[in-house]
């Protein structure tokens, strides 16, 4: 399974905007700094997300980017499809080139299909609100270290 760096950055950008859902538009540099994304690359990604309908841009001094939908309505699978197209995963068993069916082909193909369905289900059923909730829970478990 392969998720491109561009796709990971896109998900982080959407996550960051989800955290700031009720606030003013967020400038590219703030998103880039918060998520450690190269600003020039982020600009390209946000433009792609804008064309896909996930974010809107506001011009002017108070401009920046905002989500076009509520984080409850945005799922990880949508972002992956928009940015990357699909998740690369084996779709069939290795072939020797002779075209002959080998023992185990059905079992392996079934396994790859099941894996693809399971991964897709997780991505498609995980909203950005879910991710924010998970992040908030994890922060409660870690105390700030004030050692000097």
UniProtKB/TrEMBL annotation:
One of its GO terms (molecular function) is DNA-binding transcription factor activity. Keywords: DNA-binding. The keyword DNA-binding applies. One of its GO terms (cellular component) is cytosol. Pfam families: Rrf2. NCBIfam families: rrf2_super. This is Rrf2 family transcriptional regulator. It comes from marine sediment metagenome.
């Amino acid at each position: 399974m392969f998720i491109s760096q561009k796709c990971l950055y896109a998900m982080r950008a959407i996550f960051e905007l989800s955290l700031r859902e009720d606030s003013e538009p967020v400038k590219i540099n703030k998103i880039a700094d918060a998520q450690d994304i190269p600003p020039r690359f982020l600009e390209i990604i946000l433009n792609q997300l804008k064309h896909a309908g996930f974010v809107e841009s506001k011009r002017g001094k108070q401009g920046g980017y905002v989500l076009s939908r509520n984080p409850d309505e945005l799922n990880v699978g949508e972002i992956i499809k928009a940015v990357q197209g699909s998740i690369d995963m084996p779709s069939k068993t290795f072939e020797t080139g002779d075209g002959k069916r080998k023992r185990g082909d059905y079992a392996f193909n079934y396994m790859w299909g099941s894996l693809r369905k399971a991964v897709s289900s997780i991505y498609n059923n995980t909203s950005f609100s879910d991710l924010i909730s998970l992040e908030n829970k994890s922060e409660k478990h870690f105390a700030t270290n004030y050692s000097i």
